[in-house]
Specification:
Blueprint: H1 15-45, E1 92-93, E2 99-100, H2 135-146, H3 151-155, E3 160-168, E4 174-181, H4 185-196, E5 204-206, E6 209-211, E7 213-221
Antiparallel strand pairs: 1-2, 3-4, 3-7, 5-6
Length: 225
């Protein structure tokens, strides 16, 4: 009769389980060994031997270097005491070795200041000149009405605006007219002629005084098609 093994007492069927348990235990021991060595090394790295107070040398605090004080020598003042009835000398010694006495005369020269310009024309006086009750606007209208367009300028088709500067003096007359921005000699000359032929103005006033006043007006030449 052939003997047969019982399934319950067969140990071969539990071999994989025992093998896995053994591997787990071995791995756990290896990990514990590594952690033990790491902890010991880290503790040894931060270990410092105790020091006594006598081994520690305290350094004195560093202070910025002191600047050397500059001592200025004092100039001694020497006073000479003389009796009250002593006659003192009135001569003074000047830097150029000139002796000054009682009869010495001096001449003081005061630099001359340039005189202010007389009758300098105003631009914005307190009371501007008046032209026929309309001021500068009325004069501009008068110029545009009384100007003559030069025939040669018409034939040459010359157009533009001429700017004329002039002064209304204390007598109310237009003077010192000049072109400050022209177009053509023909138009510039006609603009000057018209401005200088102006009737008399009422002079400008600065306070209670009549003054010269400067003006600038545009004189326009325009051809109509």
């Amino acid at each position: 009769m052939e003997p047969k093994k019982s399934f319950r007492v067969d140990l071969e069927r539990n071999r994989p389980i025992f093998f896995q348990i053994g591997c787990i235990v071995a791995l756990a021991l290896v990990l514990v060994a590594f952690e033990w060595n790491r902890e010991t090394a880290s503790r040894a790295a931060i270990y410092l031997p105790p020091q006594s107070k006598s081994d520690v040398t305290e350094l004195p605090p560093t202070l910025p270097p002191l600047e050397e004080a500059v001592v200025h020598p004092e100039v001694p003042v020497i006073l000479s005491l003389v009796p009250d009835n002593t006659e003192l000398s009135v001569d003074l010694q000047i830097f150029d070795n000139t002796t000054v006495g009682e009869n010495t005369s001096f001449r003081i020269t005061v630099p001359e200041t340039p005189e202010a310009p007389v009758d300098e024309p105003f631009v914005n006086p307190q009371f501007p000149p008046d032209f026929q009750g309309e001021g500068i606007t009325g004069f501009w209208k008068w110029v545009q009405k009384n100007i003559t367009y030069p025939r040669e300028a018409i034939e040459m088709n010359l157009q533009g605006t001429v700017y004329v500067e002039f002064i209304v003096n204390k007598e109310g007359q237009v003077s010192k007219a000049k072109v400050i921005k022209g177009v053509d000699p023909l138009l510039d000359a006609e603009a000057l002629r018209t401005v200088l032929s102006s009737p008399r103005w009422t002079p400008g006033m600065q306070g209670a005084n009549k003054v010269n006043v400067r003006f600038t007006i545009p004189v326009t030449f325009l051809l109509k098609n």
